[in-house]
Structures are given as C-alpha cells and as structure tokens.
Amino acid sequence: MTADPISRNRRTLKERLFGNPMVIKELRGRMRGARAFIVLTIYLGLMSIFLTLIYALYAQSMAFSGSGQGGEIGRVLFYSIVGVELFLVTFIAPAFAAGTISGERERQTYDLLRTTLLPARALVGGKLFATLSYILLLLLAAIPLQSIAFLFGGVSEIELILSFVVLLSTAVLLASVGVFFSALTRRTLSASVLSYAFALLTVLILPIGLMILGPVIGSLTSTYGATAGSVEAAMYYIIGLFLATNPLGTLYGTLQLLADRQVAGVFDVTLQNGAVIKLVSPWIVFVIFTLIVTVVLLAIAVRRVDRIEES
Amino acid sequence: MNAIIETRNLVKRYGKLEAVSNLNLIVPEGAIYGFVGPNGAGKTTTMRILTTLMRPTSGEAYVAGYEVTRDPRNVRRAIGYMPDFFGVYDDMRVWEYLDFFAACYDIPERERATLVDDLLELVDLTHRKNDMVDKLSRGMKQRLCLARTLAHDPQVLILDEPASGLDPRARIEIRELLVELANMGKTVFFSSHILSDVSEICTHIGIIEAGQMVAQGSMEEMRRQLMPHREIKITFLTVEDRERAKGLIGSIDGVDDVVEIEASEKGRPRLKIIFTGEDEGVALMSQRLSTAGIAIVGFSEEERSLEALFMRVTKGLVT
To answer: A8: nearest CA in chain B?
Structure first.
C-alpha cells in the first residue's frame, strides 16, 4: 500500500509540492468559503483607494507648483505600492508562519502527525510553501495595480521584476523565520513575538541603523580612503553587505543603481586612488542571504520535528 | 503466540520522578490487551514510548519486531495510535480529515476515495461524510479518530483511554468496534481505568501501578493465578438432601473440601465447595445432583470479578 523508496525519490517537484498532504490541507483550509476572497477583495480595494489618494495629492501639489512630469508621478505611485506591499509582507508572513507548527501542538494534532509516515521535511516544507502561496497570491494580485505606473511612464519592467523579487525574498525570509520559531517553541504566542522581533529588526531597525551609520562610515572613508585603497574597498563591501541584509536597503540600493547607472547586476566602482573594484547590485546579495538563512533555519526546524522527544 | 509489543526493563524518569520503572510488557499477536491502572500509573507514558513520541530513559521497547528508538519509521507503519484527546482539525470536513491522514501514510490518491468510504462505513459515519469535523458529537469524533488510526491498515492499534468521556451508548459502540477490529486480525492494545470495559472484551490484561506491572497475562491465567480456588455455594430444600449431596460431590475430581455453612436467609441448609478443577467438574456436580433427584434451591459460584482481582493486586499507590 505504501510507495517504495525508489519511486519516492523520483517524485517531480510538482508532486513534491502539490502531492504533499500538508500543502493540500493548508490550502484547503486557507481558501475555504468566501473568507479568502473577501480578504483579497478588501486588500485590493484598500490598495486602490490608497493609490487614488496618492495620485490626487500629487496631482494637486503639481498643479500648485506648476511643475512635474508624468514619469515622476508614475514612479511615486510605483514606489508607494511597493512600500505598502513590503509593510504588508512584514506583517502577514510572521502572522501566518508563526502558528503553523506550534498551532499543531496547541490543537494536539502534532503527536498524530508525528506517528504517521509524513517525513519531518514534508511537514516543515509544506507549512512554508502553504504560507508563501497565499502571500504570493496577494503580491501577484497587486501587480496590475503596480502596472498603472506604466501609464505614466518613468518605470521600467526591470524595476517591476526586481522589486517583485525583493518582496518575494522578504516573504520567504520572514516566513522561514516564522516556521523556524514555530517549530522550536511550544506556544504560538512566543513564536509570534520572536518572529515579529526578527521582522522588525530586519525591516525597520537595520535600515534606521544604516541611515545613522552610513554617513559616519562615508566620512571615515573619505578621510582615510585616499591613503589606503584597501580600507575604502572594505568600506564599500561592508556598506553593501549591510544594505543587502534588509529589504528596505536592498530596494533602495537596487532601484537607485537602476536609476543612476542602469545596472541590475555587476558594476565597477572607481576608488579615490584610481583602483577599480567590482560590486553587485544589492538584490543579488539579498536573495543569496535569504536562501542561506532559509536553508539553515529549515534544516534546524526539520531536525527538531524529527527528533524523538525526551519528555 | 508471538509478542507483537514487548518492553524490556523499560524506565522513564522525569527528573526524580520515575513514571515507568522496569516495565516488562508482553502483548501477544491478535490479543485484545487491556492496560489497566489508576490515573498517573504510567499508562500514557508507556504508550507514548511505544508510539515513538518519547524516548525512554533506559530499557528497550519493540513493536512488530522493531525497536522504537532505532527504527521509528517501521514502528509507525505498524501502529495506529489514538491518544487520550481527540486531535481533530476543526476546519476540515470528515472525509478530508481521513483523506489527509491517509495521504500522510503514503496511500496513493487513486486509492484514497474508496478507502475513506470504507473507513466511514466501518465506524458508521457515512452519513456525516461532508460535515465539518467540529459539528460531530464526542462519540462520533472518537469513532472518526478510530477510523483515522486504521487508514494504513496497521497490525497494532494503540489506544489511550478510547472510552473515556463518552456516554454509555457511545462507549458500547466503541467497545463493539474494538471487538470487530480484533476479529479482523488486529492486535488491540488499549488503556483504561474502567474495569468493566476491560473484563468484557479483553483476552489479556496488564495491571500497572506506580509505573510497575503488578500482574499480567491472559484473563484465564490471571483468574487462576490470583484466585487459586473457586467457591461454589449450593442451597438445598431439606437437610436430608444436603447429606445425600455430600457423598455425591465429594468424589468429583478437583473438589478439595465440602463444608457446611450457616443456613440461607430463608433457613435452607447450605454447602460450600472448595474447587480447583475446570468448568467440566462444575457441570458434573449439578448433573449428579439432578440425576439423584436432589432438590436444589440455589447453585452459585462466588463472583471472581476483575474488581476483586484489581483490589487484591494494587495497593492504591499513585506516583
């Protein structure tokens, strides 16, 4: 009655994701009845109102000052939506993810699952995938709204794609952190608190710290940079790395690079002593950072779920 | 008979408290094994170790030939576990609940629809197939949980207090289901602190107290071991009948002693027979008396209830 080990290993990605009982169960629960669609409608409605407001305000101020271009308003609208979505992901991802495994404990279904043949990695992976699916739905649903910016011009497709990638990476990062804490703590409340603390740290506190530290490092670099090229290069790497550990800095850095230099990948920076170093756009570093953190946290969570408990 | 569940000097300590101490449990294949003991005796702890949920402090536990800590996956394949709480997802339909757990046991999608229907029929819930789980009564939820434990056709069912918290009707339904499952060839290992549930359906019992097994074996063995002789009381119509009966009964194999006891409430003469033989001997007694035309008013054997047995072997200790 059970599948043999060989056929299990040959499962395709589609089977692994959509044949995972946990994914089917979670999505069934999430999308049951009218609730999911009402939530989606309200979300898009609020987003549209917000967009209209921004447009009205901006149009008025332009009329008042008598300046402004279509491209500028397009960019403002686009960035506003990306900002709102980032805010949304920051709040929704931990909320959905933190209850996934500790919720099973609280509902007393965790023991039942662990006596079945469902592997720990399918349980943890299924929870993460199901959480991300709903967030992905919300992000995809907002793309038409983002695309209104195209009507005004000033926004390129590459900006749309890269901002989407950063938003999705943020969702993956925060959802894995949520699932991780959910696997490690007994109660959803403590998992939520820890997940939100992490979300707040990466999305808000790191960028603020960077804003304060950035100019300090910058002035240090201009003071010592001329004498030691290696110091200046190190400063670039450190700032770049810091920028790429949080979504706000990544978005800012990536979009700024696109606007200033039209680069989305590798680019050259000339130091004060004339040497040239290569840097990559922050989104690439952010995606790699997200992947590493996700893999490590999920591996720990799987080990935790797989372990036979001491008490 | 092979042991399908076996523990060897199983110990589980929580800090200083020893919840299970040197437990040697033997559940033969095909048995309905009642695991009896007061609350807090270590029943749930033992079951959690057997179901691969908890690591014992020392000792070994085997289920279907696999050691629980070394080979948990094979153990899980062999067991169906029902804890002493429901463990149901409220936001699911009855059929989805069973379908989900069947999928967790690697049962292919094409087989699941039929399986779910069969399971629902077995536990008599077919008419509630599309209802939400939280709309079911306690008894129905318990039957649904039992159906879940059967999804992968396990050899052994490990059920923690399957009848607790149920009304009398639901309790009887669960009991009948357990007998039916045993008839299907499954070994049923269940815990209970309600003795009547155990005595009516079990083939084997184990009594646990303060983490220790105080008595274990088949129902017959237990009876014999703990009450070495049977006491039969016969009430006669007349003293003359009694005197004739003494000679007839005394010569039957297994009769150790025949004593006159005080008269019954209505003043009828009585005899007490101390007997160590089998049921055939008892039958022979009544047969001889009736052939000889002896008038008997009453013929009774002292009830050797499980309660009496339980009270004799336990001391009322709770860890």
So the answer is: B106
Q: How confident is the model at residue B118 (pLDDT cuts 50, 70, 90)?
A: very high
For residue range A108-143, list pLDDT tens digits in order: 899 999 999 999 999 999 999 999 998 999 999 988
Instruction: Determine which of B106, B133, B146, B150 to mutate to test the interface with A (most A C-beta atoms within 10 Å).
Output: B106
> Do B298 and B232 form a contact (C-beta atoms < 8 A)?
no
Determine, for residues A309 and B91 on separate chains, whether the beta-carbon distance falls below 8 Å.
no
Distance from the Cα of B261 to chain A's closest Cα (Å) equals 57
CB A21 to CB B69 under 8 A?
no
Q: Each residue of A47-95: pLDDT tens digit?
A: 999 989 988 888 888 777 665 566 778 888 888 889 989 988 999 999 9
A116 in B contact zone (CB under 8 Å): yes
Least confident of B48-62, B202-216, B266-280: B266-280
Instruction: Calculate the CA A276 to chain-centre distance.
Output: 32
Domains of chain B: 3-222 (3.40.50.300), 228-302 (3.30.70.260)
CA distance A204 to A82: 15
- DSSP letters, A102-135, are HHHHHTT-HHHHHTSS--HHHHHHHHHHHHHHHH
B53/A308 CB distance under 8 A: yes
